[in-house]
Specification:
GO terms for molecular function: protein heterodimerization activity. Pfam families: Ank_2 (PF12796). By secondary structure, the protein is mostly helical. The chain has 15 helices and no strands.
């Protein structure tokens, strides 16, 4: 990667970016670091929203290539923006750009730990972004990470009711957690009978995912 581009991306220096583009053209944006990061990765790590927007909208921008490039951590710029926990608004911008470019596989990408952007959004607590990710690509709900944790399991564990209910509306949304436990186990163990009852009712009313858990948990709530 050109050192001038690296410096501009790190600091979010839009005027320097425009000057570099005027001198070398948009092809300069395709340079990568030894870690496999593009200028879009680097600006995403730093949370430089305006810099990223300029990269993606410049004339003849290699936007598709930049959005799709995977670094050595297995991260696209979208994954990087969410996982680093500093740029939820930027992540939403990148999500929309991926949708505009019909980059569904880029949106679904998992990092080397098996997490997709939805896993990270829920883990960090970006509930608004999580809802937008679910709306933008419902198939993200089917993925489990290396610990066998689904987005639904993590949402229930964090007591993110709105996110949990949105995931329950997806027919084949994954519901598993680590060591053979499931989302209803998490709801009962961490939040008690009230949250368990809410999740079960949400499943029935929404007509969505059927949770593969022990019947004793469901029977317990039904009897009460």
């Amino acid at each position: 990667m050109d050192w001038r581009l690296l410096k501009a991306a790190t600091s979010g220096d839009v005027p320097s970016l425009k000057q570099l583009l005027a001198l070398d053209g948009p092809g300069v944006l395709l340079g990568i670091t030894p870690q496999g990061n593009t200028c879009l990765h680097i600006a995403s790590i730093q949370g430089h929203e305006e810099f990223c927007k300029n990269i993606l909208t410049v004339d003849h921008s290699p936007a598709l290539a930049l959005l799709s490039t995977i670094n050595k951590d297995g991260e696209t710029p979208l994954l990087t923006a969410v996982a680093r926990g500093c740029a939820p608004l930027l992540a939403a911008v990148l999500l929309r750009r991926c949708r505009d470019q019909q980059l569904m596989q880029t949106i679904l990408k998992q990092d080397r730990r098996g997490c997709n952007a939805l896993h990270h959004a829920i883990h960090i607590g970006y509930t608004k972004l999580a809802l937008e990710l679910i709306e933008g690509e419902p198939a993200m709900s089917k993925t489990v990470d290396e610990r066998n944790e689904s987005p639904l399991f993590n949402a229930a564990r964090r007591n993110f009711t709105e996110v949990s209910h949105k995931l329950l509306e997806i027919l084949d949304s994954a519901d598993c957690g680590p060591l053979g436990v499931h989302v209803l186990h998490a709801a009962l163990a961490i939040h008690g009978d009230e949250e368990l009852d809410t999740l079960i009712k949400g499943t029935i009313v929404g007509g969505g995912v059927i949770l593969h858990t022990h019947k004793s948990l469901i029977n317990k709530t039904t009897k009460e």
